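Marked as duplicate of an earlier ticket. Keeping the data here for the record.
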Amino acid sequence: FRSATLAVLAAAGEARAAAARMVAALQKVEDACREKAMAALERQSGVEAVEVRSSFELLDCDALILPGGESTAIGHGLEDANMLDDIKEFCQTKPVWGICAGLILLANELDQGAKQPLIGGLDINVKRNAFGRQSKSAYRSLSTSGAASSAGEAAYFIRAPEVTRTGDGVDVLATTPVEDASGASADAVVAVRQGK
C-alpha cells in the first residue's frame, strides 16, 4: 500500500504575484486557505500532502484541492502559468475538491453569464458572492447529506458562492437557509459532488 499523494494548488498566487495583479491582503487570505488545507491533510494517515506550483508537479498526484481565494485571479494565474489545460485534463480522471473559489473554478458556467477562466467539468451553474460582500460574512447553519453528512451543522460564509443549477449526476451535499427576493424561505445549495 502506498500513501495517496494529495496536491493543494499553490501556483496561482505565485503567478499573480509575478504578474503584479494581486494585492498583499488577497495573497495573505489565499496563503491562509492553502496552509489550512495542508495542515488538515497532514493530520490524515496514509496521505502525503504536497503543494503544486507547476503542471509537472501535478503528474505524481492522486487528487487535487483547489483552495479558496479570488476565483478570477486564480483562473488568470493558472492561464499565466500555462496550467489551466493541464488541470482540466487532471480533473477528467482524478478526484478534485474545490473549496469556495475552487468550486467556482470547477463550474461549467457562472450565473448571469459572468466570464472568467474556468476549469469546468462540474455540471453546475454558480453565483459568485451569493451571500454578499465581505461585510456580510456570517456563520450559517447547514443541512448536510450523503458524503458530507458528518461535516458539521454550520460554517463561515465569506463571499461564498451558491450553486444555482445542478445537472444530471450532481448530488447536493449541503444547503443553507436563505430568503429569496420575495422574502420567502429557501435553501441555497453550497456543496455538491459529481462522480469522483
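See parent ticket for discussion. The chain is about 30% helix and 35% strand.
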